[in-house]
Design brief:
Layout: H1 8-29, H2 47-59, H3 64-78
Helix pairs in contact: 2-3
Amino acid sequence: MTFEGTSVNELENAFREMVNLHIEDCKREGKPLEKSYKGSFNIRISQELHKKAVQTATSRGLTLNQLVKRAIAREVEKG
């Protein structure tokens, strides 16, 4: 999606128009408005950070997955 404008008002209106067009297209094509998420994803981090994360999780009696979930939840809640 792209939209243009020469003022904040024009940009906001163009954005709303594109969103409305997207909604209409999704309804017409029978597609969901929002992407579905399966709840798993891969991340790429340095070997050193990976090692430190595993060590931190282990020292806290957590799995790496639990540590990462907690860290993401904390960051998301901050807004």
